[in-house]
Write a structure and sequence with these properties.
- By secondary structure, the protein is of the alpha+beta class.
- Among the domains are: 98 residues, Lipocalin (Beta Barrel), CATH 2.40.128; 90 residues, no CATH class.
- The chain is 29% helix and 36% strand.
- It starts with a helix and ends with a strand.
């Protein structure tokens, strides 16, 4: 081999070694690796992500950990809030309550007692099953939902009726095919009964100027399951005579007059112990006790 040939071979070998040092191991795809701070990292599908560094990867990992921690804390806080709400409602419910139809024509006294969280004890007065037949299935009570549902349940823990608070101290529950029932503190319910008794008798409908436009009598005679009879006196204003109310009831602080067509006039008590029709108008209609 001549000196010229050996020099040529040496240069050729050097070029190959230099190429291998640049490209990496033989057979490697130069686009399937990236050098990151002295490390070779294969990315998904063998592609190099420009600008990717180990520091960025660590930042993403830390951010993920922080997000997961925040999620766990939020879930824990929500669960604790539900537990606190349930404990508060349970404490508030222990005592005597009246279970009734919306107009209180049928009532039942229920005494809610303390006990295991999912199987709280209760007592029903003897006349409950006769007044409200579904109560014969009630064996216990519990707090459900997000700590905002009072459940009256059977011996197997299945719901008989669920109540939610619609205003302070007044709970409302629906039984499909039967209607709405009210659960309220016994003392408050008896106060309402007294108010209802005070409604029985003769009333005058007057305008804002004091002019009497009609007289009517509210009775305690049951008209339907939830309402009582009302009778208009002769010589009523044409608007009142055309409305022709036949039934009335107290409902959540309002006095309702209803006619045979299903129309309703709503009245709310004012500061003068009168009942003013709502919504109010420039020429109001007011019920005044006779």
């Amino acid at each position: 081999m001549t000196k010229h040939s050996r020099g040529h071979q040496s240069r050729h070998s050097g070029s190959r070694q230099q190429g291998r040092a640049t490209r990496g191991p033989v057979g490697a795809n130069p686009e399937s690796r990236a050098t990151i701070s002295g490390f070779r990292v294969r990315t998904r599908k063998g592609r190099v992500r420009p600008g990717m560094t180990i520091a960025k990867g660590l930042d993403c990992f830390v951010a993920l950990l922080l997000a997961m921690t925040a999620a766990f804390v939020a879930v824990g806080s929500s669960a604790q809030a539900q537990q606190d709400a349930a404990a508060t409602l349970k404490k508030d419910m222990i005592g005597q309550w009246e279970l009734s139809t919306t107009e209180r024509s049928k009532t039942c006294v229920v005494t809610l007692k303390d006990g295991p969280a999912q199987n709280l004890k209760l007592e029903l007065e003897p006349g409950c099953a006769a007044a409200l037949p579904f109560t014969k299935d009630i064996a216990a009570w519990s707090i459900k939902g997000l700590g905002d549902i009072v459940r009256l349940q059977d011996a197997a823990g299945q719901p008989v009726i669920d109540f939610t608070e619609v205003e302070s101290g007044i709970f409302e529950g629906l039984r499909t095919g039967e209607g709405v029932y009210i659960l309220q503190n016994l003392a408050a319910a008896r106060s309402l009964a007294k108010s209802m008794d005070q409604m029985i008798g003769d009333w005058a409908m007057v305008r804002g100027n004091g002019q009497t436009v009609c007289g009517l009598t509210l009775t305690n005679t049951e008209a339907t399951a939830d309402n009582f009879q009302v009778f208009l006196k002769p010589k009523c204003d044409p608007a009142v005579a055309a409305f022709a109310p036949t039934q009335w009831r107290l409902d959540r602080g309002q006095m309702l007059l209803m006619n045979a067509r299903g129309d309703t006039w709503q009245f709310e008590a004012d500061d003068n112990a009168q009942w003013r029709r709502v919504p109010d108008t420039a020429d109001p209609l007011i019920l005044v006790r006779q």
